[in-house]
Write a structure and sequence with these properties.
Blueprint lengths: L9 H23 L5 H12 L5 H12 L7 H19 L9 E2 L2 E2 L1 H5 L1 H25 L4 H15 L4 H11 L6 H26 L4 H28 L2 H4 L13 H27 L5 H12 L3
Antiparallel strand pairs: 1-2
Bound molecules: geranylgeranyl diphosphate.
Length: about 300
């Protein structure tokens, strides 16, 4: 299999899609802010607009297009994923979690806006994201049952069987060495569930066939794990300045793909997962150069 992503330059594609995603996020924020007490507005703005990669909404949009979805209505649905992601980072950085001072190259939200405002602004984003998913799907003219399924997809990925459950397993894992299958299970939930939901939601919004949905699901599952392996590799080998956040795995004595397998084997596994993701798409007849490029980007990014 040829590596890095065919004809699409992932960084150019990401930059264009990031701009469109930012515009939708800004619109959503302007709608929310008037009802929010002024003291909370700063934390909300800081957490949502700080410069992330916007990978989850971009994957959602790319999946939508891969199954033939047209038009820009999808961004309004796709940003619901970024709103959940933004809250998770705000909470993850708190003193009771990772106690981080740096995120996306900037001081973390609680360091700027205070802990109480950050906890509440993060909590506020959960219902806001669910409403955004519903309204985004409805504004695309999707039937009510599909809108319901899309909200269910988002909330399930963010919940106890997904991101929040995975975060708790991660905290427990700080106290002992995990096996490879425990580590896979933890990351399938903590990071993988929302990434996978990004693909599934794009596919469902674009009226994917069952075969296309299954292929995008398999792609999402594979790149979810590959993403985490890449994250562990970056945490072990990069600096706070390059990452824009503080590497923390070693300090927290965490089990990671690097502590379990070493840098070389972890990198090999990440590439194998990406190859599997690309094969899943091709096997279902999905012509999706953007998704192929994004899969390689996930393991070759530098932050
Ligand atoms: C209710 C206190 C409380 C916690 C909720 C916080 C939480 C549970 C779960 C968070 C889990 C988490 C932070 C998962 C994401 C891990 C991760 C690798 C994030 C980085 O994602 P990128 O690289 O970041 O896409 P950018 O900055 O580009 O958006």
């Amino acid at each position: 299999m040829s590596s890095p992503g065919g004809q699409v330059d992932p960084r150019g594609f990401l930059a264009r899609e990031r701009d469109r995603t930012e515009a939708s996020l800004q619109t959503a924020l302007e709608e929310i802010l008037p009802a929010v007490p002024r003291e909370l507005a700063g934390a909300l703005r800081h957490g949502v607009t700080s410069p992330g990669k916007r990978l989850r909404p971009i994957l959602c949009v790319a999946a939508y297009r891969a199954v033939g979805g047209q038009g820009d209505g999808i961004y309004s649905l796709a940003i619901s994923l970024e709103l959940i992601h933004a809250y998770s980072l705000m909470h993850d950085d708190l003193p009771c979690m990772d106690d981080a001072e740096l995120r996306r190259g900037r001081p973390t939200t609680h360091r700027v806006e205070g802990e109480r405002a950050t906890v509440l602004a993060g909590a506020l984003l959960i219902p806001v994201a669910a409403r955004q998913a519903w309204e985004g799907a409805a504004s695309m003219g999707l039937p009510a049952e599909r809108c319901r399924l899309l909200v269910e997809e988002l909330t399930r990925a963010a919940g106890g069987g997904g991101m929040v459950g995975g975060q708790f397993l991660d905290l427990l894992g700080e106290e002992r060495a995990l096996t490879a299958s425990e580590l896979d299970d933890l990351h399938r939930r903590k990071t993988g569930a929302l990434l996978r939901a990004s693909l599934r939601m794009g596919a469902m919004a674009g009226s994917a066939t069952p075969g296309e949905l299954e292929a995008l699901d398999r792609y999402g599952e594979a790149i979810g794990l590959a993403f985490q392996i890449a994250d562990d590799l970056l945490d072990a080998t990069s600096s706070a300045q390059a990452l824009g956040k503080n590497p923390s795995d070693e300090e927290l004595n965490k089990s990671t793909y690097v502590t379990l397998f070493g840098v070389e084997e972890a990198s090999r596994r990440a590439r194998e997962l990406v190859e599997g993701a690309v094969s899943a798409l091709r096997g279902a007849g999905l012509e999706a150069p953007e998704l192929e490029a994004l899969a390689w980007y996930v393991v070759e990014r530098d932050r």
